[in-house]
Write a structure and sequence with these properties.
homodimer; 263 residues; alpha+beta; Arc Repressor Mutant, subunit A; Beta-Lactamase; two-stranded antiparallel ribbon; 10 helices; 20% strand; globular
């Protein structure tokens, strides 16, 4: 070791770090799609030459981040699931919340969602759905806009003010209603959700669904997640679900506060 | 681009690929533990200098594979959950199986497990547990030995012969019973599980629990997963659960065969 740390730090980025970024780009190539990708598809989606793609994909396969199917295509590997299961905001939170979500699911027979905020979006970390529950478009691991979903509104209303300002300054599309939400409307909604501790919202497509969402707080009273029940608007007055959702979100908060994994 | 692909391929491994391995080693440092790691802990567990660790951890944090907590420690990030959710053998399978697992969970009020085989081990991809179900040691994303668990025995019995030989040639510890399983015993168990299509097994610790497990088959009749119910031995004759577990495993097989995601 004759180099100073500064010299090493100064030199490495030019050679080494782009390789990590390229490897991560291969993983990102599976986003929005899942399923299997051929080497050619993987190379095209990652924007990397085939030889580089194959070399990096082999490293990732050796480690278990990717797996090869019988016909030589690549899929996301099981080892990522094992590692992701250690994410405190993902499975850690989920482990604390799941028994209570199951109770809510028994009681309603519909969709029960658990989401966390990532910057200005919500990420769905769990969804329980009955066989014949109304159709919704959300999937676990998927991203939802904060301004247009029940869990998103709860996470937004309980986020720091700079997150409010960033979201309010951006586009607020409501594609299903073919219009945009105004910043003034969203400000009013944020204030109401903060005041009432619950968000009641509705979606018209793919079928009319209503959502009742409430926050989950950690020991520092930070809203670390939002829990919701989503029901077909025709089947149930959403207001009748408010007490159940609020009570279960409080029970999940207590479980989160006790759990060392879900910090 | 004046170099030939061969020249590039010949040169890169010496510089570039170890960087990918080092980055993956940082992720592996969270295995067996979860929770938050300080820079010093991460560096020690990955066996990398602190400066390298910090540089790579920052890349991984930028991409979202890691996140930093308020006090500067690192945790596994949400983006890994998003990507892992695309694993066909993890969440793809889980999405197909979950409604049926919930039915079984309602019916029994105990633990319902879903596992897949990774080489000579089983990986738990889902666990539903009631608030007051008996205590079991398994966690989602964790690994289980094939020879000593219900789901493991089902996956082993339905694995190719070379997997049998590899497992039979290795150590077969039964730590809870303070003895080893003999290869002859395991051969008989494999034959019985194959013949009967179900594995009934028991564990003495942490408390006496029994497991009833059955295979999930894909469209090619490959056993892609195993489903089990784990109950306290004192509460229920495991044999009474066999019809329910077998029926639900068949229902999950049909769902998997219909689902494009769970190939």
């Amino acid at each position: 070791m004759t180099e100073s740390p500064v010299a090493r730090r100064g030199r490495k980025p030019a050679q080494g770090e782009p390789v990590v970024d390229r490897a991560l780009r291969l993983l990102s190539a599976f986003e929005d799609r899942g399923g299997a990708l051929s080497l050619a598809q993987l190379s095209a989606r990652a924007g990397l030459p085939k030889a580089t793609t194959l070399r990096l994909a082999r490293r990732l396969t050796e480690w278990g981040a990717l797996e090869r199917t019988g016909d030589g295509q690549f899929v996301i590997g099981l080892r990522l699931l094992e590692i992701a299961a250690l994410s405190p905001r993902g499975h850690g939170l989920r482990a604390a919340a799941l028994p209570f979500m199951q109770d809510l699911h028994h009681a309603t027979g519909q969709h029960v969602l658990l989401a966390v905020r990532d910057d200005t979006e919500a990420v769905l970390v769990e969804r329980l759905s009955a066989h014949r529950a109304g159709r919704v478009l959300f999937r676990v691991g998927g991203r939802l806009p904060l301004h247009a979903t029940g869990v998103g509104l709860v996470l937004l209303a309980n986020a720091p003010r700079d997150v409010h300002e960033e979201v309010l300054a951006g586009e607020l599309p409501l594609p299903e209603e073919r219009r945009g939400l105004s910043a003034a409307e969203l400000r009013r909604t944020i204030a109401r959700v903060r005041r009432e501790g619950v968000a009641v919202s509705s979606l018209r497509l793919p079928e009319p669904m209503s959502s009742v969402a409430a926050p989950v707080f950690d020991a520092r009273q930070t809203a670390v997640a939002a829990l919701s029940v989503v029901v077909p608007t025709a089947s149930l007055q959403p207001a009748t679900l408010v007490p159940a959702v609020v009570a279960v979100a409080r029970a999940v908060s207590r479980a989160v506060q006790r759990s060392p994994a879900a910090r």
